[in-house]
């Protein structure tokens, strides 16, 4: 008897390969192949769910990895459900942490959700996105409904969650309400009749709970797709605002361009795979061009322009490239320069010393006073300037450069 994967049409097989691109895990692949084949045969769109607790309003490129996958599924014709966890945000999900995440006030939830969706709409097609709030059904559960929901899952299964197991063995308290979070996230899938739910690798347990609860409620269980965490500019730590290695999607085109050009040639391919909308065949062709002598810098420029065009527009991307190249022509910024990471929010004068661009505080101060210090090509006149976490190209005089990342 042939497997679902063997009987897929060429179109459905192509869809499956695109869905799997860059993902960490697809469970269960054979089940999802059946769903894709059925959707192709009937014309009935699959229901794709992404649940987000609006704990923070700002989005960086790391967040867009899962949003890009949603857009791919949307472009295939499937129904994308952007689920805002306004109810579950009031509980707090540890998600692998050793303590619960602080619950939000209703006002914080509303404000964050509005900002988050506005930014997410730069990736998703707003006209083809179904926006839902899980308070629609969670508020109606009441005490009786919550008890009935809890009766459909065992404590033994709940303790299979790695975080709960470690905390229990380590004598770290686990509050009863923490068991309710994965139950309610799973109940969201029941209410939405989800065919596929997406999430980060840290959400795998909660996604599987949704699959089991759908079986309990007599529904076809959803498949789950987990996406990897994108490395930040340093190529080591995951992209994070607190670590200062991030690229915010609302940053200026020049800032985005400079940061993207600072990533290593190796990390560039990771960004292409998880952030670019180019096909894998196109990306393979770019790799082949580099092997044949094309400068990796040119390929990195293409990536930077694609991403800036997505979050701003094409003219902005072209101007960012022109500004970047103009700095090279003026001799303001070499392609290769020393790179280092320094912890904390620091005064400019100290950063200049730490980067080896000056030998003393007095030399640093003198260079600023004489107009010899630039940050990302802009002359600095403030001797008391304090640099926030982020990545900067520092210049002293005409020939001394360093790319410095300040981690939070």
Automatic annotation (TrEMBL):
Record motif 'HIGH' region, residues: 54-63
Domain RNA-binding S4 positions: 346-407
Regions that span the bilayer: none
Superkingdom of source: Bacteria
Catalytically driven reaction(s): tRNA(Tyr) + L-tyrosine + ATP = L-tyrosyl-tRNA(Tyr) + AMP + diphosphate + H(+)
Motif position, 'KMSKS' region: 238-242
GO molecular function, one term: tyrosine-tRNA ligase activity
InterPro entries: aa-tRNA-synth_I_CS, aa-tRNA-synth_Ic, Rossmann-like_a/b/a_fold, S4_RNA-bd, S4_RNA-bd_sf, Tyr-tRNA-ligase, Tyr-tRNA-ligase_bac-type, Tyr-tRNA-ligase_bac_2
EC class: ligase
Its EC number(s): 6.1.1.1
Database matches in SMART domains: S4
This protein's record includes keyword Ligase: yes
UniProtKB keywords: Aminoacyl-tRNA synthetase, ATP-binding, Cytoplasm, Ligase, Nucleotide-binding, Protein biosynthesis, RNA-binding
Claim: Kinase is one of the keywords in the record: no
Subcellular location: Cytoplasm
Annotated residues for binding of ATP: 241
Role according to the record: Catalyzes the attachment of tyrosine to tRNA(Tyr) in a two-step reaction: tyrosine is first activated by ATP to form Tyr-AMP and then transferred to the acceptor end of tRNA(Tyr).
Family the UniProt entry places it in: Belongs to the class-I aminoacyl-tRNA synthetase family. TyrS type 2 subfamily.
Subunit structure as annotated in this protein's UniProt entry: Homodimer.
Matches recorded under NCBIfam families: tyrS (TIGR00234)
Name listed for the protein in its UniProt record: Tyrosine--tRNA ligase
UniProt organism field: Alcaligenes endophyticus
Biological classification of the source: Bacteria, Pseudomonadati, Pseudomonadota, Betaproteobacteria, Burkholderiales
């Amino acid at each position: 008897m042939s497997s679902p994967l063997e009987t897929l049409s060429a179109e459905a097989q192509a869809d499956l390969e695109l869905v799997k691109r860059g993902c960490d895990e697809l469970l269960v692949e054979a089940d999802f192949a059946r769903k894709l084949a059925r959707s192709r045969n009937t014309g009935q769109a699959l229901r794709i769910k992404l649940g987000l607790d609006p704990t923070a309003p700002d989005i960086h490129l790391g967040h867009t990895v899962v949003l890009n996958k949603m857009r791919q599924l949307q472009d295939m014709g499937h129904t994308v459900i952007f689920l805002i966890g306004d109810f579950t945000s009031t509980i707090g999900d540890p998600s692998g942490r050793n303590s619960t995440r602080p619950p939000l006030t209703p006002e914080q939830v509303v404000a964050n959700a509005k900002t988050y969706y506005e930014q997410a709409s730069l990736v998703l097609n707003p006209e083809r996105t179904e926006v839902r709030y899980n308070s629609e059904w969670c508020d109606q559960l009441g005490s009786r409904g919550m008890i009935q929901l809890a009766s459909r899952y065992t404590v033994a299964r709940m303790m299979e969650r790695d975080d709960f197991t470690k905390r229990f063995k380590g004598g770290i308290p686990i509050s009863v309400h923490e068991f309710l979070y994965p139950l309610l996230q799973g109940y969201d899938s029941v209410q939405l009749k989800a065919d596929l739910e997406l999430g980060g690798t840290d959400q795998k347990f909660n996604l599987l709970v949704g699959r089991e609860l759908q079986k309990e409620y007599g529904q076809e269980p959803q498949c789950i797709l987990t996406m990897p965490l994108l490395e930040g500019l340093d190529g080591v730590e995951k992209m994070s605002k607190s670590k200062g290695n991030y690229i915010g999607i609302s940053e200026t085109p020049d800032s985005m361009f400079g940061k993207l050009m600072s990533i290593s040639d190796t990390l560039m391919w990771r960004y292409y795979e998880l952030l670019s909308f180019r096909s894998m065949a196109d990306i393979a062709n770019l790799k082949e061009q580099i092997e044949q002598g094309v400068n990796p810098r040119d390929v990195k420029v293409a990536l930077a322009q694609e991403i800036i065009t997505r979050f701003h527009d094409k003219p902005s991307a072209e101007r960012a490239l022109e500004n970047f190249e103009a700095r090279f022509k003026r001799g303001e910024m070499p392609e290769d320069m020393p790179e280092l990471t320094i912890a904390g929010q620091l005064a400019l004068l100290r950063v200049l010393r730490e980067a080896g661009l000056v030998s003393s505080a007095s030399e640093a101060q003198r260079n600023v006073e004489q107009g010899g210090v630039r940050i990302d090509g802009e002359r600095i006149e403030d001797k008391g300037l304090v640099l926030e976490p982020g990545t900067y190209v520092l210049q002293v005089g005409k020939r001394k450069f360093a790319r410095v990342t300040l981690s939070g």
